[in-house]
Give the backbone structure.
Amino acid sequence: MAITVQEMWNEGVGKLSLSIISGEQYLNNRLPEIAMNRPGLALTGFFKYFANQRLQIFGLAEFTYLKSLSDQEKRHRLEALFEQQIPGIVVTRNRKVPAEILNLAERFKVPVMRTPMVTMDFVNECTVLLKKLTAPRERIQGTAMEVMGIGVLLRGDPGIGKSETALSLIERGYSLISDDVTEIRRTSRGRIVCWANEVTRYHMEIRGLGIIHVPSLFGVSSIRRDTELDIVVDLKKSSGNEDRTGISPEQVTLMGVEIPCITLPVRSGRDMANIVEVAALNQKLKELGHDAAKELDDKVINRLTRGRVIGHG
Amino acid sequence: MADEEIVKNLKVQNQYGIHARPAALLVKAAGKYECDVFIEKDGNKVSCKSIMGLMTIEGYPGSTMRVTTLGVDASEAMAEIEELFVNKFYED
């Protein structure tokens, strides 16, 4: 997925303390390779291998090298670099941008940005930012909550009570991420991150009430911008065929990532929020390496076989 | 319609006895019927609709359980419970 320099700029203007020096109108240049390059080697005249499709970073090394050249040589080398059709330039350490670079950038329609960060920090931070920008994302049906540090996605047919369950969880002091429509992306670490659509963020629709604004009613602690997803909870009409032990939990695949999934039967009078809360707690316990269902089963088997079988499959 | 009572002695034939998985199968089977289903061993009697009950009944491999079904659909319930015992709870 290709992005434009503009998208990197929009995201990085605050986080990377970027400012634009020249060529703001060229920010819509495409960034074909989502990466950065230090053009030091190219400045020496070596172009046999030059990552010209990447964002070019001018740091201390580049400037020190340019300083060692005569004015004519400097112009010549820089011109050769710009002829490679680079998408954009970032100057680190708030260095003053030489007039030669500015002239050439104007001529070749290349935006020039600057940051006070040192090169290594900038490259690290910008890599994370670019990865985030280009991470695969999807929009799914479901209400996302954070319950004691555990990311929970509530799913189920319309009218089954997702929003009502979420509301009860909010009243218990947990945080809403998104109601009914959740944006997800896969991180490079193979986790799923949930957040809300910008427009409808922190609003909920409750049948009979209409639309409410959660932080206005419950305070800012009732909301959270995003969360990593730990467990999916499917609310279903009771079928009598539910898991009764939790020995072999189910999984769902979201964007190629397997997430534990439990199906909760909904019946009138059943406090769903309470059960979702316990499901989240139990998931937390499992992540700490303590699986209650499995441990009890092992204990029972050990007893039944009088210790003849230890750790069955 | 008069309640029917059926009593049968069934042997636990799987390798591990009545642990969580067989218990879950029994509870699901018994839960489908309206009648009461009990399992008894050594004077301990528990409902076959309770996971925790079944896991405390000590259904050792090779032990014999006294199963009682009591109610309108007692014979259907007994047939399904018996099938699970006979088929070693579909384990091994």
